Amino acid sequence: MTGFVETSRTAAVVVASTSAAAGTAEDKTGPLITRWLSERGFETGEPTVVADGQPVRFAVDDLLANDAQVVIVTGGTGVSPDDQSPEMVAPLLDVQLPGIIEAIRRRGEASTPLSIITRGVAGFSGNSFVITLPGSTGGVKDGLAVLDPILEHLLVQRSGGTGHGPR
C-alpha cells in the first residue's frame, strides 16, 4: 500500500519496588500491566524494575525521552517512608488529572478501605500519558479498569483530536 505509514504505539511500565529490584521479591504487577497494554495495541518491552525513590524519576525521565506514549508506574504510592512515586513523577507532568486517581480510589474502596490511603498522580508530560498505580495486584486491576474506557480518548484529545464522545 503506497502512502500508508503505520505508526507504532509505545508504552512502558516502571515497577517501583526496592525488594523486587534487589531480587528478593517477585514483581506481579508489571507483567499484568504489560499484558493489558499489549492487548490494547501498545508495543511494550519488559517492565523496568527499580528501587523506590529517585530511581523511579530517572526511569520515567528516560522513557519520556524515548517518546513512550503511555508510562505506567506501579508501586511506591503508599505511606511508608520509601513510597515516593507520586513525588518523583509529579514534577514531570505538564497537566495533572487528579480525577483519575480519585476514581481509582473509589473503585478500590468497594473491596478494601485501605484503597483510600493510596496516593498517586496522573497526567501528561508533553503528549505522553503518565500514571502511578498501587503496587498491589488489586490496586493495579482497579487502576486498569478505570483507564480502560478513557485511555484512547485521552491520547486522541491530547494529540489535538477532538476525542468528544457521547455524553
Q: How would you describe this structure to a colleague?
A:
By secondary structure, this protein is an alpha/beta fold. Helices cover 38% and strands 16% of the residues. It is built from seven helices and six strands; from the N terminus they run βααβαβαβαββαα. It has a six-stranded mixed beta sheet, with helices on both faces. Strand 5 and strand 6 form a beta hairpin. Helix 2 (29-39) packs parallel to helix 6 (137-147) and helix 5 (98-109) packs across helix 6 (137-147).
Task: Present the secondary structure layout.
Elements lengths: L10 E6 L1 H4 L7 H11 L8 E3 L3 H12 L4 E5 L10 H5 L5 E2 L1 H12 L12 E4 L2 E6 L3 H11 L3 H8 L9
Parallel strand pairs: 1-2, 1-3, 3-6
Antiparallel strand pairs: 4-5, 5-6
Helix pairs in contact: 2-6, 5-6
